[in-house]
Amino acid sequence: MLSRLTRPQVLAVCALPFAGLVASAVFAPLPFSVAYPGTTADVLGAYKGTPVITISGAPSRDTTGQLRMTTIVATGPDAHVSLGDVIDGWFKTDQAVMPRDSVYPSGESTKEIERHNTEQMKKSQDAATEAALAYLDRDDENIKVTLKLADVGGPSAGLLFSLGIIDKLDGDGSGGDLTGGRTVAGTGTIDAQGRVGAVGGVALKTQAARRDGATVFLVPKDECSEAKAELPKGLRLIPVTTLQGAVDSLVALETGKGSVPAC
Q1: What is the pLDDT of residues 155-205, one digit of tens each?
Q2: Angle at 188 between CA 184 and CA 192, to 5 degrees
Q3: Is 91 exposed, middle or buried (0-12, 13-18, 19+ CB in 10 A)?
Q4: Three-state SS sequence of 146-202
Q5: 20 to 30 A Cα–Cα from 209, which one of 94, 185, 250, 255?
Q6: For 39-68, what is the mean pLDDT?
Q7: What are the Basic and acidic residues biased-composition ranges (predicted)?
Q8: Angle (deg, nearest 10), helices 83-90 and 7-27
Q9: CA distances (Å), origin 178, targets 39, 127, 151, 214
Q10: For the chain, what is the HEC assignment?
C-alpha cells in the first residue's frame, strides 16, 4: 500500500498515528493534582458567620488586627488532570502541580479523605488549645476554648489557632495586641509542646495571604526556601519553629525592640 503512495502521502499517513499518540498523551488522565491559593480566615473574627474562637471561663480581650490562617485548594482525587493541565500548571505562579498521592492518601475515597481531614483538624485544635494555655501558664484553670472553622480540614491552622487564643486571652502581655494592628497570616502545624511543623503548599499560601491583605507571613522555618520562591511583593516572611518564637517575633515587630528573624 505505502509503496504506491508519493512521499508527501507517505508522511501524511505516518503522521496520523503519531498525532493520535500525542493527542492521547495530552488528554489522558495523569496521577497529579493541581493546587491553587485557597481561602484565608481571620481566627480572631468570624468565618461564615460563626466566631472562630470562643472562650469561656476567663475574660477575653477585644482585639485589633487580624491573624489569618491560609489554605490551598487542590483538584479532587477523582479529577481528570491531563498533560496539558500539568504543563500549564508548571508555567503559572498561582498553581502548583503535585503527585496525587502526596495530596490524597492512595486508595482512599473522597469521603474517607474528608473524614481524615476532619479528624486532623480536631487533633490540631486540641493541640493548639493545649499549647496556648501552657504558654500562658493557664493550663490548670477552668478555661474552655471552642474552635470552629467550617469546611476547612487538616492540621495546618494549628499555629494560628494558638496565636489567636493567646491574643484573645493575653495580647502581647503588656496590654497591646499581638498583631500590633496588622494583618498577619501564616501556616504551620503545632503540637501540645508548642513545636511548629511544616505543612506544604506555602508558596500558594503566601499568595492567598497577600491577596487578602496580609503584610506579614509566619512560615515554618524548614519551608523558608519554598516560601521565598514565589513571594508576593509587600509580604514579609518570619520563620518560626516554636509558639514561643512566633510570639516573641510578633512582639518584637510590634514594639520595635529585639530582633525579628527573616528567611
Answers
A1: 899 999 999 999 999 999 999 999 999 999 999 999 999 999 999 899 999
A2: 115
A3: exposed
A4: EECCCCCCCCCCHHHHHHHHHHHHCCCCCCCCCCCCCEEEECCEECCCCEEECCCCH
A5: 255
A6: 96
A7: 109-123
A8: 70
A9: 23, 20, 27, 15
A10: CHHHCCHHHHHHHHHHHHHHHHHHHHHCCCCEEEEEEEEEEECCCEECCEECEEEECCCCCCCCCEEEEEEEEECCCCCCCCHHHHHHHHCCCCCEEEEHHHHCCCCCCHHHHHHHHHHHHHHHHHHHHHHHHHHCCCCCCCCEEEECCCCCCCCCCHHHHHHHHHHHHCCCCCCCCCCCCCEEEECCEECCCCEEECCCCHHHHHHHHHHCCCCEEEEEHHHHHHHHHCCCCCCEEEEECEHHHHHHHHHHHHHCCCCCCCC
| pLDDT tens column, 29-40 | 556 778 899 999
Residue 220 pairs with which residues in a beta bridge? Answer: 240
Instruction: State the cell numbers at 234.
Output: 509587600
Cell numbers for 237, please give them: 516572611
CB atoms < 10 A from the CB of 249, how many? 20
- How many CA atoms are closer than 13 Å to the CA of 207, on its beta-carbon side? 17
Average pLDDT over residues 116-121: 86
Name the CA dihedral angle for 7, 13, 18, 22, rounded to a multiple of 10 degrees: 120
Identify the pLDDT of residue 168: 98
Output the pLDDT for position 110. 72
